[in-house]
Amino acid sequence: MAPYSVNLEYRVPEIDTNPNIHDVEAEMVYVVDGAGVLTIGGILKDERRTPSRRSRAGWSLRPCTCRGAVRLIDLPLGEDQAVLDPHNVQHAIQVEAGRLDLSADLFLGHALRFV
Fewer CB atoms < 10 Å away: N or C end of the chain? Predict the structure, then answer.
C-alpha cells in the first residue's frame, strides 16, 4: 500500500544486526513471534552512511553524555507488541532467546513527528 512498505525479518540470537538511524522515515515494528529488546538512544559507534543514503548504521550503540543526546533505553519486546521508532533516533533490536520474527513498516517522509 503506497507509500508504505512492509518487511518480515527473522532474527536469531547468534547473529546481531547493526544499529541504525533512519534519516527521513519513521519505523513501526510489530513482533509477530518471539521476544527481544529494542534499545534506543545513545550514539552509533563507527557511524557510516548506508548505500541507500537514507539512513546511517554503526557497529554498536554506546551511551553518550553529550548535550541533547538521548540516553540508552531498553524496551522489552514480546509477541503481538508494536513500537514506533521516530526518524532520526538511534535504535537496535536484539533477540532475547530462541528467535524473533518482526514486521517492520517504514513510514515515508516526516509525517510522524515527536515533539
Answer: C
